[in-house]
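Supplementary Note 3. Input sequence used for the single-chain structure prediction.
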Amino acid sequence: MGGAAIVSILFLVFALYQKSQADIATERAVSLQVAAQKSEAIAKTARDEAQRDRDAALKAKEAEEQQRLQADAAKLLAQQNEVLAKKNAAEAKRQGEIANRNAEEANRNAIEAKKQEASAIKSAADAQRQRYLAIAKSMAVKSKELTNPEQEALIAQQAYKFNTQYEGYIYDNDIYNGLYAALKNNDDPLTKSLEAHAQGAARTLVTRQSTNQIFSGGSDGKIIRWSEQNNQWKSEIIITSTDYQYYSIAISPDGNWLAAAGLFPSNELNNYVELYNLNDLKAAPKKIKGYTYAIENVSFTPDSKGFYARDNSGKSIKYSDLTTSKEVIKAPIKINAIDVSIDGNKIAGAGENGSLYIWDVMTNFSVTEIKDLGKHLTSVTIAPEGRRIVVGDNTGLVKIYDNQTGFVIRTLPGHESSIEEIQFNHAGTFMATASKDKTVRLWNMSRLKEQPIKLSDHRDWVWSVAFTPDDEQLLASVHSSTETVKGVEHTIHAWPTKIPSMANILCGDVKRNMNKDEWETYVGDDLPYEQTCADLPANNN
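The predicted structure, written as discrete structure tokens, is reproduced below.
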């Protein structure tokens, strides 16, 4: 084999090697192709998975965005809802407040409506009350004009019933005078004047509570003792003097002595006070001398061991120890009246110059002057409690002075002439003022703003007043007796003082109730009929 063969063999070997390498390469290539195909498949799968992941991520992102958008929308909606909720809450609160205000207003309106209703009911009731009270006063006035005593009593009694039922002032002047006139025309003992001192004026009256007696003295020279028997006052002349005029009498607190003073016309410059022993009236009186001209306003001391008296027509005040007399006060001005306090510690004097003088007995009669209480003071009295002092003047004006505060606490007009005397009842609840204007006025001390009861059915001026021991009557000594169609009005006039007592009497004086015509005439045809006297049958047919 030559070289060519070798070369050919080499080429063949090389070719084979190359072929082998090629085959290996081909197998490798096929293997790589297969691997590549697998890798591509895997890659494709990965790509597909990645795509799916991308798609899922995109979807997730889109979903997230959608959720974000939804969250933003929800947040915005929540914010809007919150704003709306707040707005609605504010509106609800406002509406609630409006509702509350409306409810409160409605409640206030309801309350006001109830008040208005109550006020309307009260006004209607008050209007009805005022109407009945006006009718009562009108009936009381009309009753005094009637000539039939039974009819007069019925009308006056019904006037009193209306006034009481509708809470009128119990001591109304018209109601009182209607009852009084009816009682008087039915001859009730409470209204009967006391027959005494026919030959001259009764000038002075005093009462003695312990024995339920009254004493009167007059310018006719008589002193009379009055005792109550069967609801009437029976007289007993205990002293008769032909040369003495009695202007003032007083009973000692222990009831043993009666002091009588006045005027001794036959010898005015040598006047005296008579002192009688009430336990032995047959004994001659003790004459206590040392007085000049008229003696008035005799007042015993609380221990009954002495008395004071206004002497020399008001120019001197003297004290007597029941045996002698001495001047204890030389008046700086004419004193027209004096009064001694219940405890005996003070003496009050009514000055002609308009001043009230108060002397302190405990400090040797040191004096306090209260000026300008009137033009000319004519009367004075100290109230039972000792604090108030009441004065009257020549014009008829009455003033109440408070001795603790130093002020006039009440001025009481009404009288038209000089005030002659002022007296409290024993209870201190009423005060009587007697005047030369021919009237007596009865004042309720707890209701001084009310008009007083005016007593004026006598025809002469009044000197003195006194309450009976039980305060049921007021007595007045009148200047003279008067002839009337019913007889003589004697010089001691009597008036009942307690309206309830007066009213309870009249139904016992009548035999029937008002009939329908009388009711419609004196009460009214639109007001319901009622029985005036409950114990008598109705009479409204």
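The longest helix spans residues 3-143. The radius of gyration is 59 Å.
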